[in-house]
Amino acid sequence: MMLVDDLLAGSRRALARVLTLIENDAAAAAEALAALFPHTGRAHLVGVTGAPGTGKSTLVNQVALELRRQGRTVGIVAVDPTSPFSGGAILGDRIRMRDLAGDPGVFIRSMASRGSLGGLARATSNVVRALDAAGFDVVLIETVGAGQSEVDIARHAQTVVVVEAPGLGDDIQAFKAGILEIADVLVVNKADDPRAKNTARALQAMLDLGNGSAGRHMALHHGVLMAAALPTQATAEPDSAPRWAVPIQETNALRGDGVPDLVAALDSHRAYLAGSGEMARRERSRAALELDSLLRERLLARLLADVDRQRLAALVDDIVSRRTVPHEAARLLVEESAP
Ligand SMILES: Nc1nc2c(ncn2[C@@H]2O[C@H](COP(=O)(O)OP(=O)(O)OP(=O)(O)O)[C@@H](O)[C@H]2O)c(=O)[nH]1
Ligand SMILES: [Mg+2]
Predict the structure, then answer these.
(1) Which among 111, 122, 280, 301 is least surrounded, fewest beta carbons within 10 Å?
(2) What integer pLDDT is reported at residue 118 of this predicted model?
């Protein structure tokens, strides 16, 4: 595929076109993704999530600038599925435009919300794959940590950064949203605010209570596919394997204070993943989850293609009128459509 060859050769135009195909869910995207797949797996995928307004966009911009100073190339994917917060996203994007525009070592893509959040999650993961194949050293994925779908998007990253800021309420928002447990690195941004020290202390207390990111993938699923994702003996973690201690980094994203340390923490986490075997474990569970969801989709589509609409409507009526138990209705449909 010419487009893919151009992308792999470094053409930004070809990259932009492939990303548009992916976003539009075009049939040609599947072909391009298949051709790109063998070239993926090299970039460091970093998810940046947190409550609205904590400074994620500003911080991502600073991290990108620091990586560029170090001579590394950066892809940025900004996911904005929740329009009420788009004011902040637009502001962040404007800052990015100013500082990073014209640098060929940076590529920025904003993902607009279209259709379902599930569709957005898949499109995002494919956009990240294309940036990975295009050879960017680091891909930063910004999502507003407001719900499960955003958490799912963050899960595609190898290193998850959860951004907190002081003064947005006394309690820790990430904790409320349930995203603290997916953090590999915690950031207290807006360190210029005198309350930042308190926020950092509260987060540290919470980390001391819990286990940080341990086991976040395995807790998801207990099906056959997840069993297949469990480490084989060769990759099993030896008892002596070090555990990752989630660091808390304080930053001022307006000035860039603390950003070199944050980048160092991202690098340490990647080194930990590679050295401990955790990278391979996460890869396996991600692969199993993706296969699981694709299988569900295909099997459901195949089944529904066979099912008579009237029969389906009749079974729904039977459930509503309490004549048939939902489980029984599902069993009947599968049985009746079996080849
Ligand atoms: N004082 C202070 N303000 C900051 C800092 N970082 C970001 N801000 C400000 O906080 C506001 C929100 O910043 P964004 O970067 O747009 O935050 P965001 O988390 O991306 O916001 P959403 O995408 O809407 O969730 C802006 O007014 C920023 O200028 C910081 O370190 N200190
Ligand atoms: Mg933002």
Answers:
(1) 301
(2) 65
